[in-house]
Design a protein that fits this description.
Keywords: Signal. By secondary structure, the chain is an alpha+beta fold. The protein has 6 helices and 4 strands. A 4-stranded mixed sheet has the order 1-3-4-2. Helix 1 (4-25) crosses helix 4 (95-106) and helix 3 (70-84) runs antiparallel to helix 4.
Length: 174
Amino acid sequence: MFTEKNFRQILVLAFAVIFSFQAAACSKPVTGTASSPRTAKASGNVEEDILYYVNKFRKSKGLAALAMNEVLNVEARGHSKSMANGRTAFGHDGFESRIDDISKKLGRVSAAAENVAYGNLDAEAVVNGWIKSPGHRKNMLGNFNMIGIGTAKGKGNIIYFTQIFINKPVVAKK
């Protein structure tokens, strides 16, 4: 008989197996410096601006916009802070735990992926870097409906960026 703890362990293992490809595909850093000025559409808030540029890219490919979700933002910000202060190495360490925490708060998640980057970048530059990287691009164009975005400054004012993508099935109301 399965207990709730066993179910969670199986769920985490399933996420690890299913989504290891996305994590592995995104393990190369997107780095650099800001290369272009902000456009009039940018808000001045880096996280909101990243959402704008990601959704602009998705729209150009005929895909629906992603909805920003605060539960995902908290997880993304926490990971960016951990990388920025050196508590965790740059990369996807703890991805399965982040998705498990999200699932506990939001319910069933059918797909998840993560992009990370660091550098002295503005929102448009980091999104353009992800677009040019096949693994990151695949995640941004994936079958997801929600996104969380988090940034944190590290030593030398280097910014660490995290995007978490999920597909949260929409439950039809009766």
